[in-house]
Write a structure and sequence with these properties.
Elements: E1 3-6, E2 24-27, H1 44-47, E3 55-57, E4 79-81, E5 88-90, E6 103-105, E7 110-113, E8 125-127, E9 132-133, E10 149-151, E11 158-159, H2 163-166, E12 173-175, E13 180-181, E14 194-199, E15 218-223
Parallel strand pairs: 1-2, 2-3, 3-4, 4-6, 5-7, 6-8, 7-9, 8-10, 10-12, 11-13, 12-14, 14-15
InterPro entries: Leu-rich_rpt (IPR001611), LRR-RLK (IPR052592), LRR_dom_sf (IPR032675)
Subcellular location: Membrane
Keywords: Glycoprotein, Leucine-rich repeat, Membrane, Repeat, Signal
Length: about 230
């Protein structure tokens, strides 16, 4: 068994036993006609023994607990999709065990606290939008070698934007709108800056448009820079 996919289930219960060959585990929401849904629980024993799992998709399941520590044992995990749930608490500090994680999609939950240093791995897509994330933007976000999409829209992130974030070579989409960011936009654009979209709207920033913006290789959609 390499893949386990349950679509439109209503009353699926129990645990997933240890299966070293399982690569994909996806549970899709019930059919829209099923109106009365009960919150689902992210049972640590459902996922912690699936050592070879590469894709975990539990979006839209009304999961109402914190992210379990057992998730960090999925050391082959590449794609994590937990968006549109009711997951609370902080992002686990042991996420750095997920050495192969490239996509972390955690939007539309109730996550709190700062972005942990444990996420400074090989992420290509990071979406923690529409949560309650606070604290400052970590400077290491600009050091991730393959990060191409960063969406932190609609949180409570404050402080200033690290200059190295806007000077990152591979980062093409940044959405930092609807936070509490302050200060000026860093004058950190360069000839290798290639932004398909850059949204800094609905923050508390001030100052002039950076002069280095004209030296960027490409800047597509802009919001909040004027």
């Amino acid at each position: 068994l390499d893949q386990l996919h349950h679509a439109h289930h209503r009353r699926l219960e129990g645990h997933v036993r240890r299966n070293p060959r399982l690569r994909l585990f996806a549970l899709q929401p019930p059919h829209p006609r099923s109106r009365r849904q009960q919150p689902h629980r992210l049972d640590p024993f459902q996922i912690g023994n699936l050592n070879c799992l590469t894709v975990l998709n539990r979006a839209g399941k009304k999961i109402s607990v914190e992210i379990p520590a057992s998730l960090s044992r999925l050391q082959s995990l590449n794609h994590l999709e937990l968006s549109n749930n009711q997951i609370s608490g902080r992002i686990p500090a042991d996420f750095d065990n997920l050495k192969t994680l490239s996509r972390a999609l955690l939007s539309r939950n109730q996550l709190t606290g700062p972005i942990p240093d444990s996420m400074s791995n090989l992420l290509a897509d990071l979406d923690i939008s529409m949560n309650q994330i606070s604290g400052a933007l970590p400077s290491w976000l600009g050091d991730l070698p393959v990060l191409s999409t960063l969406n932190l829209d609609s949180n409570a992130i404050g402080g200033q934007i690290p200059a190295k974030l806007l000077g990152s070579k591979g980062l093409g989409i940044i959405n930092l709108s609807r936070n509490t960011l302050e200060g000026e936009i860093p004058d950190a654009f360069g000839p290798e800056s290639y932004f398909m979209a850059l949204d800094l709207s609905y923050n508390n920033m001030k100052g002039k448009l950076p002069g280095s913006l004209s030296s960027a290789a490409y800047v597509g959609h802009l919001a909040g820079l004027f």
